[in-house]
Amino acid sequence: MKSVNFLLAFVLLALASSLASAYDPSPLQDFCVGINDIKTGIFVNGKFCKDPKLATPNDFFFKGLNIPGNTNNLVGSNVTIVNVDQFPGLNTLGISMVRIDYAPNGGENPPHIHPRASEILFVQEGTLYVGFVTSNPNNTLFSKILYPGDVFVFPIGLIHFQVNIGKTDAVAFAALGSQDPGVITIANAVFGSNPPINPDVLARAFQLDVKVVKDLQKKF
Ligand SMILES: *[C@@H]1O[C@H](CO)[C@@H](O)[C@H](O)[C@H]1NC(C)=O
Ligand SMILES: *[C@@H]1O[C@H](CO)[C@@H](O)[C@H](O)[C@H]1NC(C)=O
């Protein structure tokens, strides 16, 4: 019986993966609105490809991730992004990376989501408190304190953060499973949308006084 179940599972899995290859490709940006008239503009899912004959080694090269970002800002962190916009050779390869610098004593990469990628983070220097929260209904926090050499993974689409809890600068590098992972910083997206979300909506959603919501909206 067990082996029949196993066989069935195997067949279903094989069927699912062969079906999956018939589906549309995953989106490589937030959206790609269809048009009928190509004269009014044309865009593809991702970027246009250079003629391979014209490719050069520099298309597959990026310089400068040794340079710290300036963390002198409200959150005390700086993300240097190396995605397909900075590094055209990444087009269609499904990967990208970032360098993140954190100011001492609480510099943080605030809670955010990458809608299109999981992220694997490596700590080069400093001490980071990191975590992610699972989806509803559990909303379980998985968190950890990381030291140099440690690696942590943030699953695709989940809210996550990193905070420098040390007294010195911290530096991490991360690889992400998309050429354009996208970033939704929760506070900015919710309280800083353009145009603003009606404050009554946010007051109810966050169980806050409307005045507090309006203050938050001014900040973002
Ligand atoms: C991050 O650092 C770069 C390089 O120093 C700087 O140009 C940029 O303004 C910084 N970004 C933020 C959000 O502080
Ligand atoms: C979520 O919580 C419920 C109720 O406590 C539990 O039964 C379930 O196993 C949890 N799911 C996960 C993925 O942790």
Topology:
Layout: H1 2-20, E1 77-82, E2 96-102, E3 108-113, E4 119-125, E5 128-133, E6 141-146, E7 151-154, E8 159-164, E9 170-176, E10 184-185, H2 186-191, H3 199-206, H4 210-219
Antiparallel strand pairs: 1-2, 2-9, 3-8, 3-10, 4-7, 4-9, 5-6, 5-8
Helix pairs in contact: 3-4
The chain binds 2-acetamido-2-deoxy-beta-D-glucopyranose (NAG) (2 copies).
One 2-acetamido-2-deoxy-beta-D-glucopyranose binds next to loops.
GO molecular function, one term: manganese ion binding
Signal peptide: 1-22
Subcellular location: Secreted, Extracellular space, Apoplast
Q: Averaging pLDDT over every residue, what do you get?
A: 89
Largest sheet data: 5 strands, antiparallel
Number of helices: 4
CATH architecture title: Sandwich
- Overall form: globular
Spell out the CATH superfamily: Jelly Rolls
When the domains are counted, the total is 1
Q: Taking Cα atoms only, what radius of gyration do you get, to the nearest Å?
A: 21 Å
**Top CATH class:** Mainly Beta
DSSP, total strands: 10
Instruction: Write down the CATH topology.
Output: Jelly Rolls
The ordered H/E elements are: HEEEEEEEEEEHHH
**Low-confidence runs (pLDDT<50, min 5 residues)?**
10-20
Classify the helix fraction into a percent range: 10-25%
Which structural class do you get from the secondary structure elements?
alpha+beta
Distance between the termini: 59 Å
How much of the sequence lies in strands comes to 25-35%
Binding site for Mn(2+): 112, 114, 119, 160
Subcellular location: Secreted, Extracellular space, Apoplast
Disulfide bonds: 32-49
GO molecular function: manganese ion binding
